[in-house]
Design a protein that fits this description.
474 residues, 42% helix, UDP-glucosyltransferase activity, single chain, 7-stranded parallel β-sheet, EC 2.4.1.-, UDP_glycos_trans_CS
Amino acid sequence: MTKTVVLYPGLGAGHLTPMLQLAKLFLQHGVAVTVALVEPPVKTPDFSATVARAAASNPSISFHVLPPPPQPPSTAGSSADDTPRHPALQMFDHLGAMNAPLRDFLRSLPTSADALVIDMFCADALDVAAELNLPVYFFYASGAGDLAVFLNIPSVRANMTMSLQEFRGSVLSLPGAPPFKASDLPEELLKDSEAGKAVLRRMFQRMPESNGILINSFELLEPRAARALRDGLCVPDRATPPVYCVGPLVSGGGEKGHECLRWLDAQPDRSVVFLTFGSLGTFPKKQLEEIAVGLERSGQRFLWVVRSPRGSGQNLNEPLPEPDLDALLPDGFLERTKGRGLVLKSWAPQVDVLRHSATGAFVTHCGWNSTLEGIVAGLPLLCWPLYAEQRMNKVFIVEEMKLGVEMRGYDEEVVTAEEVETKLRWVMESEDGRALRERVLVVKDRAAEALKEGGSSYAAFVEFLEDLETVNRP
């Protein structure tokens, strides 16, 4: 009988996209897949459109949008003093309230699922799986290095006499990671805020309760972290469940006819620097101006995605208006760089741009999806982390993988035009930049090999399926 798994992604395209790639991996191994989706608490037309596109592009996968809970959590929008709750707390509240609809859906399936695979933010669903006696696995959509560090943090905090905030200027040495500054941890963990405590309590402290953890990475990219996780070094006081590095799982792209792809067709091979900062990455006008000046002075060809600055206190889920490039960028910039550069408003077909033969380097916010997409495309990474785990990703990219360099000033008020100019010239023109590009091309080949039959990620996924068979055996 065909096995069936239910995949339960978190909120946002950044979590759905890799989960869909995981779904395709299950299908390749003959496992049927149903994806249970949660509509965001702030309803947007984007959600329905995203689900429709996913269903149309993946006809072999079943999609089910869970109904909202009977009563939304009273804490979803604000606290008792009307202070807006942190987006992470709102997300945990919303996903926690979805346990009842998820349980009802799993019970309604004509054939019982063989496993539930949950997003890293959906740890509350562990309670549903336990109630239904259903094997449950996490899909960690970021890197093995991040996971090694974050699983360590509860133990680190418990053994510290000072707060992480007081420790931020010091260096941490943890299993699975190179030495790094405490200030590279996510800000909410440093501040020991309610949101940070919730992330630790409702995600990383609960992960060891699962039957295993699938990681969107591959062994040769993060050998130290993968080894530390497997050896149980990252959860000192408990057993670590099996970990399986099954990546890189990235989108195949497939956009056709976008103006930027036609523009790239006219550029020399490996000559264009691509700058984009994720779906939530925005900059104030001052920073946009510094980037523009640096691009102009560098003399490099560039493709740059510009988004409108986010207003003070604006909800992350609120759509941004279309950027007014003439108002945001220096006078005459667009005209002076015409032909050598192209500025896009809000969005670009990222995977297709990265894989285009004209693209030669990638300025990135170090989100893990973008990081893997850049590596799979064989591009050096100019690292400009903005929020969440991106600073930790920067540490691993620069110090451990040696596939990128840091854009200095990312953690200060502004990255200067001089830094933008210097780093772009370095990566595109210098001998050290050439050596970096060659290293990335080697890892690109290793990424492809990992996914082939006999490769490390292929073998890890087969091992996972065999372990699942054992767990399900009476």
